[in-house]
Amino acid sequence: MPLGLIALALGAFGIGLTEFVIMGLLPEVAADFAVSEATAGWLISGYALSVAVGALVVTAATVRLPRKAVLIGLLVLFIAGNALTAMAPDYTGAMIGRIVAALCHGAFFGIGSVVASELVAPDKKAGAISIMFTGLTAANVLGVPFGTFIGQQFGWRATFWVITVIGVVALIGIAAVVKAPRVDGAVVSLRQELSAFRSGQVWLSLVVTVLAFGGMFGAFTYVAYTLTGVSGFDTAAVPWLLVLFGVGLVAGNAIGGRLADRSIDRTLLIFIAALVVVLVAFALLAWSQPATMVILVAMGGFGFGTVPALQSRIMQFAGGAPTLASGANIGAFNIGNALGAWAGGVGIAAGLGYTSPIWIGAAITASALVIMLFAATAARRAQTPVEVRESVAV
């Protein structure tokens, strides 16, 4: 395994940690700044929206620059954002720090996916991307327990100082061991990067990303209410039950990456279909604590197992200009998160109960499966080799 992949995974771990860790710190942050927990919650929503914006704007602004240099610059932005959050004198200062850190998120994963794929042989690209995303999944597993523990022991600001240090270590690692991506001649222009969006398959891939991830996240956003209000778990058990979900993320990411190297579309069809089944089973069996614990692992596994394949698919159909499309797909993940959270909230607000977000998530994911079937069928009928698509895109 190239050492560069480990450095990229460490950067992904730090960025993922700053995204998820705030969830366990909201009470402390709200008390420190004398704001309501709902107001403090905008530190999560504001971050997600900034990720979606940064994924496109920052990637487009840096498309002509060397990718390794851009990754280093993005980590500098990440370090600055977390340091600002840790030193914030008030709520506004914390929000600014969160936005600064979030702007690097989408571009890092979008550009990092391209760099990771160039560090390995062509038939190992999806696996390489999954290794980088292992950092993100590990952050999901450790984020809430780690942040809660550090925050309770030393104050919430200490957590963000630790994340800042992780960012520094990741920056040094990427600078030292990530090889500069190969240069095949002329630098790809923004116009060439934008030309990737002429492909109908690129747009279909983006829609599948929004819906597949949105369906899972719609169920996951309100899972704490389901676990306590339907499954009957104690509130104190929720963070540790979420670790089960995180374990599924790690396993699904690794397995999904390996399978996607064999067949991207087949992997997506199997994993999305399985996710629909898992969500329906969760909605029906949420009253059972043993079943719920098993389902949490499966939901994380099949949900995040789609990520390497989704990222690889859009890069494949983007041809020789994959950077902006890759960043757009990271933005699509976050749009899916927002869509799923909103749709699940509608179900609860309508008085349909705490299993309604799961049913809604299953319906959204089922729509992703239908579109993925259409996309896979259209791609198979086209019977155009990847090499030809790449030459056309260039």
Short description:
With 394 residues, this protein is an all-alpha fold. The chain is built from 18 helices and no strands. Helix content is 81%, strand content 0%.
- Which regions contain 5 or more consecutive residues with pLDDT less than 50? 386-394
Question: Which secondary-structure class do the elements indicate?
Answer: mainly alpha
In what range is the share of β-strand residues? Answer: under 5%
Describe the global form: globular
Percentage of helical residues?
Answer: over 70%
Q: Enumerate how many helices there are, as a single number.
A: 18
Rg, rounded, reads: 20 Å
Distance between the termini: 30 Å
Q: What value does the average pLDDT take?
A: 83
* Most strands sheet: none
What's the total count of β strands? 0
Q: H/E element string?
A: HHHHHHHHHHHHHHHHHH
Descriptive labels:
single chain; mainly alpha
Descriptive report:
- The chain has 394 residues and is an all-alpha fold.
- It has 18 helices and no strands.
- The protein has helices spanning 3-20, 26-33, 37-40, 42-61, 67-87, 91-118, 125-154, 156-177, 190-195, 200-221, 223-229, 238-260, 264-285, 289-304, 307-318, 323-349, 356-382, 386-393.
- Helix 6 (91-118) crosses helix 16.
- The protein is globular.
Indicate the topology.
Layout: H1 3-20, H2 26-33, H3 37-40, H4 42-61, H5 67-87, H6 91-118, H7 125-154, H8 156-177, H9 190-195, H10 200-221, H11 223-229, H12 238-260, H13 264-285, H14 289-304, H15 307-318, H16 323-349, H17 356-382, H18 386-393
Helix pairs in contact: 1-6, 1-7, 1-8, 4-6, 4-16, 5-6, 5-8, 6-7, 6-16, 7-8, 7-12, 7-15, 10-15, 10-16, 10-17, 12-14, 12-15, 13-14, 13-15, 13-17, 15-16, 16-17
